[in-house]
Amino acid sequence: MRHGKECGAGAGRGDHEEDHEGAALTKEPARILVVGGGYVGLYTALHLQREARRGEAEIVVVNPEAYMTYQPFLPEAAAGSISPRHVVVPLRRTLGDCEIVVGEATAVDHAARTATVKTLAAEEEGTGTIDIPYDELVLAPGSVSRALPVPGLADHGIGFKTVEEAIGLRNHVLEQMDIASSTRDPQVRDAALTFVFVGGGYAGVEALAELEDMARYAARYYHNLRPDDLKFVLVEATDRILPEVGEEMGRYAVRELRGRNIDVRLGTRLDSCENRIAVLSDGSRLPTRTLVWTAGVKPHPVLAATGLPLTERGRLKCTAELRIEGVEHAWSAGDAAAVPDLTAEQPGTECAPNAQHAVRQARVLAGNVLASLRGKPLQEYRHRYVGSVASLGLHKGVAQVYGKKLKGYPAWFMHRAYHLSRVPTVNRKARILAEWCLAGLFKREIVSLGSLEHPRAEFELAAGTGRHPEAS
Ligand SMILES: Cc1cc2nc3c(=O)[nH]c(=O)nc-3n(C[C@H](O)[C@H](O)[C@H](O)COP(=O)(O)OP(=O)(O)OC[C@H]3O[C@@H](n4cnc5c(N)ncnc54)[C@H](O)[C@@H]3O)c2cc1C
């Protein structure tokens, strides 16, 4: 039995052909489609390619980029401590036995076992999308920033989930310092030197702390900027930050940030940011050219185009075996999936969206896909959250792991050691370690390469067809 559709992403799906008594006559490889090449996608495909028997499975991975992003290193990439190329893992090299399709799944018809995928080629050819058939579906598109309907946010907000955003933000911050240094208008200078971050989870706090550290260091190279001229503000709606490291360590992090002259506003919301003025719920108005939005994530919107069962919050309803509830041959894990936390005291608790669960779930998921193909029993996912580590800039950090609390240099060291051990491939580990060692010997990089975002600008200017981007 074949579903017959062929696509640019390889041959049609292999199915198990059976005679009238149900015994397998020929067994074609099962076609496993992995949507998403992040934590879950990469690790699931990696385990599958290692553990599947010869001829047992064909693995196709669809991801909008040809790389996986190791998100916990984005703040260090923004600070210039790790180069952007080293926080991403090339899918083609790491998943040598898989077929990689660079594209974006836009819909899934699970009854027909087909995913619709938008690729660059299909767009250029005007065909729009291709159909990829499969036997087993692993749906792991992760999450997207949870933007709220705050006036002006869509126009001025900057997210912090991708390597492009992290490097764009680094360039932007340094560019604001260049603007402040060269303007004679005190209002422009003030707005350029005010950096507002909304959201006190690890993404927001680490991004703010690393960038503040880097920017104040860079200020020493400007003849007319002092480190204290830079104003960093952290806006958090609840009364604490970094809930992942526990209450006591969260309070320590607030003290540490305030001690560095960072304005931490707890119990405060961003009400609007129109005309580049951040208006906060405590009544303050902060003219700013930098508004970073890291106030949480929500499941990827593509899930709504799959017809698969979702929770109220839009995550895929999953069983502890990482199957999508009530559906055969469909699996999920990570930020996109509502997986029951079997270690929680309160029934109905879901595993939190973080890398700790994503990596471990991927291993169980891959094992279960293979077990189901082999007719073997499935394993339940069970992992008790062990705590978290967070960096607060160079040589500063906070951690709570297995109940052990650490702060300052030991926590920072643990953060680096932990993530170095976790980042995929020996190649990445070696490159990152080399960068850290070199950074210990030389001074920090402080240039903005924002012009990389407009590579044709100089030539267009020479050809008389364009305007210099700075002129706009
Ligand atoms: C700045 C930052 C720091 C973090 N630090 C930590 C930390 O210290 N500790 C921790 O535990 N967690 C941390 N996290 C959270 C952690 O990174 C996520 O929980 C984890 O990445 C979830 O894995 P995932 O595979 O579900 O999603 P992701 O890793 O986000 O992967 C999803 C993939 O799917 C792709 N995709 C999206 N839509 C489609 C589509 N339509 N078709 C095909 N592919 C698609 C995406 O491009 C992406 O590659 C951090 C997150 C951020 C943003």
TrEMBL record:
GO terms for molecular function: NADH dehydrogenase activity. Residues 31-356 form the FAD/NAD(P)-binding domain. Residues 13-22 have a biased composition (Basic and acidic residues). Residues 1-23 are annotated as: Disordered. It comes from the Bacteria. Pfam families: Pyr_redox_2. Keywords: FAD, Flavoprotein, NAD, Oxidoreductase. InterPro entries: FAD/NAD-bd_sf, FAD/NAD-binding_dom, NDH-2. Belongs to the NADH dehydrogenase family. This is NAD(P)/FAD-dependent oxidoreductase. It comes from Streptomyces morookaense. The lineage of its organism: Bacteria, Bacillati, Actinomycetota, Actinomycetes, Kitasatosporales.
